[in-house]
Model the fold of this input.
Amino acid sequence: MAVANTFTGLIPTMYRAMQTVSRELTGAIAGVTLDARATGAAKDQTIRAPIAPAATLEAFTPAVTVPNTGAATYAYVDMTLSKSYVAPIPISGEEELSLGDNYQEVMQQNFAQAFRAITNQIETDLCLEAITNASRAYGTSGTTPFASSLADAAQIKRILDDNGAPGNNDPNYRSLIINSAAGVNLRSLANLMTASNNGSDQTLRNGFLLPVVGFGVRESNGIATHTKGTATGLQSNGAFAVGDTTLAIDGSDSGTLLAGDVFSFGTAETTTKYVLISTTASGAAAGNILIGKPGIRAAHADNDEITLAATYTGNFGFSRNALVLATRPPARPMGGDAATDVTLITDPVSGLTFSVARYNLYGLARYQVELVWGYKAVQPEHIAVLLG
Done:
């Protein structure tokens, strides 16, 4: 049986495959602002995301004319479609013939693996972007959250509330992304496993993680361990005022500073922990470190000690507007390329739109699942890391 030059017969197979993999632990994709247009795009194309400024107040004074005040200057964050990948699925006529009645099943598995590989890579990208662009952190490095209560989630909520993040008490707008170890602890809490306390037996019966303290709780395989930098002996270089985001530092020892490092003034486990976004300094050299808005919460004097927290697992909470994911099918020439057929398949769960193309080769057909994507933490003040 020859493989047709159209996807008509394979589209149900691709949808079944996508449904199989789209419910893996990819919670970050479900929580971000998604721009998944079907128009083609090229790698390294730039997309601009506007950010409205904070409102200013003015006294209301009755007058015969309307005041011409309140004009806004909008800021923008540019996001690059930095990733462009395909997952190839080659199959020869001999392979198809040998598969016989198993052809559809094998192709479903092939498409499942292709969708899975791209989706998981996007999930990993989003999780890394979040923890390296967060405002603050809470928890103890190396200790899995939710060991005995929901207090960790409440503390992340407090950080976002204090920072003015939108979506307070809206689990459809705020997400708490955790790894499976933290998920185990949540499912082990007596007040969540007891229907009379939880208001539902879904956690007990089916393992569902219901919303807690205003967060939609989602698990992710993309959460990774952040290995801290090796810098020691760090201190403030000059006085810092409340709200500063660029901090001049110096140090006495050699070492490295890395995006995603968590630090405190004083000991590593003081209550207020900040996340390093970028740096021009190393352990021994003077330079600046950048933290997210709204900046430091207390003034500090010259030569105050700065201590890095230990290596941690980067769970995180955020509001939907803080992270943007843009996906596009790859751009093709107006007259088309060598593909004999191209179709778009939209995942009804994640919202991602994949391009699938078929190329006829010599005794061989090559299918490929394609996607171009970019991602950006546009408002770090609406992201907080939950250390694990």
The first strand starts at residue 33 and ends at 35. The CA atoms of residues 149 and 276 lie 28 Å apart.
